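To whoever picks this up:

The nightly regression suite flagged DUF4214 domain-containing protein as changed. Nothing in the input moved, so I suspect the structure step. Input below, exactly as stored in the fixture:
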Amino acid sequence: MRFSIRNVSEQEVKREIRHILEEVSSDKDEISNKHKPTTVVKPVDFENIDLNYLFSLNGAEFVRSAYRLVLGREPDPQGIEYFLSKLFSGEYTKGDVIVHLRLSKEGRKRKTKIKGFYKLAIPFFLKRVPIISKFYNLGKFLIFPERFLRRLIALENFSYTHILELKHELYILKQSTNEKIRFLEEITSPLRKIEVNNIWTKEFNFGIENKENFYASFENAFRGGYESIKEKQKIYLDILKKEGVRGKVLDVGCGRGEFLELLKQEGFEGIGIDVNNYLIDLLKKRGFKVFNMDAISFLEQFDEALDAITAFQVIEHMSIKYLKKFLELSYKKLSNGGLIILETINPWNIEAFARFYLDETHVRPIVPEYLYFLLKYIGFKDVKVIFLSPLEKEIFSFQKLKYYYLDYAVIGKKEE
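Regenerated output under the current build:
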């Protein structure tokens, strides 16, 4: 159907305008009522307000200013979102926003006086009359083509200016980032050189005293000297004494015999077992009671009760299946009140974990939580975890406890 402006009566136009007023008021009331104004400003006389300045604002800044001047309050989030969507879609002009706010229930109640309001209202109404809107928009373009062109050019310039500003900010950010990267590289470069030098020094300073047995030489080079290990293991003597353990103590994986020597000095009856026949022969020559056997084989044939079983840096050499059987047999062979002490590498410590597979006989690292659970599951009571061999405090003082130590030990007690 085609419409002609001559066919529209004055009554029909008035009726359309009344319909639009009701629609606008209804829409605006719905937006305004969702959030009650938190700050109300006294009514202002808009006669002295510079509309040109208001219309020079853009986006959310314009909407906020319009709310303050027309409704005397800050806009609610829904209001900002609603009017920004209308403005960005081109459905509303800035004048339309002013008219919409003024004709809302809240705006009519406040009665803000706006100089030139009707000049803003007439286009607002005409654009909303279906019959007239097409002719209005076309006529506006034909009458004011230069104005439309200026707006398009201004919009293009505005966008271009913002793009240039963003490019400039991006360039500055990139330069700043590059400077920080260069700075970090400069300050870390000497540290990397120091670390590399230390590694090479360690490689060339290995004292390979014993060429008859590979693992004995390996342990001397990487685990530490005999006296240093002996000093470290004194803590376990204190634990045995504190728990009232006296009598037979089985040291599984006795190695070079550091703990056996401590036991002998304190009057314990120490028994050592190890799968390394070279080390066992050396310990026999020194007078220790030792056997060249693995843990399960020894426990299965040993008939006497044991007061304590220790295994220092041993269980990481066992498969999980073997470890479970070893712990079950240990529980059976321990006397009531007997202790089991298991020391191993702490995989929560990044340095210890990084060096774990340096030993080719290591099977898998075992976290403290799992070993604790395993002892409890098998039946050990009063299970405790202690952490050993801390790193240098000045370097790693920020670490949590379990990340701070190279080794840990789990201690369990047999109680029936």
